[in-house]
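Appendix B, Record 12. Input sequence as logged:
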Amino acid sequence: MNILIMAAGAVGGYFGSVLSKTNEVTFIARGEHLEKIQKDGLSVKSVTSGTFVCKSKAYGSPPPRYKADLVIFCVKEYQNQKACEVISNAVTDHTTILTLQNGLGSGDILSRAFGREKIILGAAYIEASKGGSGLIVEHGGVCKITFGGQNEEQTERLKKVEKIFKSSTIEFTISKNINDDLWQKLVFISALSGMTCITRSTFQEVMSQPSTRDITKKLVAETASVASKLIPDFSKDTVSNVIEYLETHKNDLVSSMYQDLLAGNPLEIDAINGAVSREGKNLGIPTPINDMIASCLSLQDSRARN
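Logged structural output:
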């Protein structure tokens, strides 16, 4: 199967490299990262999958006649418009697009660009980072993908994607309610990303200070309160489970949005805390912590974009 990875960052680089062992994978990348991959391959140092070099081809945009069977969409929210333009010529009526983007909204954007029937929603659970140009580091712990269809008409597309992942060593699950899973992850990431960015601190520091730890717990409950109104039978154990995970792994958790903040990059705030804030307003549910985080971080986001 021809699999196009948009793009070869931490998430796309890792999962694409593992998939390349059993599929024809093509990476989209840019700058020195692209040059390094084209010259030496994409190096992967992984607790889960070992150390290896992926020799898949990489380009700044797909070759003119290239057509993808599957596109794995892993860009940041602020890169969506450009990314859709880049992959457009590689998408046919038979192409399926699996989005693993953090937060909410990528499914709608991709549906408007390419048709809802092509879009499979997913979530990646992985602790990984770019270790430099041409290098992806996967740090261990949970390393899996969950994905699911938006309606029953996507059953055949789901089967094809399932077949691709079954041929690999990637742990995956097919969700019967992917929107529930996306909100489960949003409860987690709104706390991790939101609190580290607004405090400009590591998550270990956030959870070591009683006052910020208390705000973090309230933020988890606040986001879950929105999810419980939107998602039928949303798990009542979400709040306790997420808080327990955050407490247990506080020394190891690193938010990609926090890394973007430190690097002076745009932020995915609109798809994370901003998304919770908007949904809360639509439902008449107060979300004061998400509101504050989204409003304050919008200043840094605007500076970076301009």
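Residues 2-176 form a domain with the Rossmann fold fold (CATH 3.40.50.720).
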